[in-house]
Amino acid sequence: MNASSDLPSAKSSEETKAQLCLLLNVAATPGLGSLVARRWVVGSIQILLAIVGFVLIMMWFYNFFIAIFNDVSMDDSTHRLWQTGLVLFGTAWAWGLMTALTKLRAVRSAGEPEK
Hints:
With 115 residues, the chain is mostly helical. It has helices at 10-28, 32-36, 40-70, 76-111. The protein is rod-shaped.
């Protein structure tokens, strides 16, 4: 058995990296996989959108629990926090998904033999 047959090929290594990017963007933090794929600007914007969206949702939760604790109602501007946060985070997540799928498709099509 030859030692070089035990090593993964460059194609499978790139495909594994693209799959990792997909997993990170979808399951961990939107934009993190894009940064791993060396898409610096896109990944940075995705992470920024995800963080701002998350912070807005957490601000709404804080206001929600304070309102419950003090037995007061919340105003409409407070309800807009979670809606805006959800839109921002959802946009970052969907954009991260599309970025990772594009990278995965590019890696897979580069490995196909020409017809």
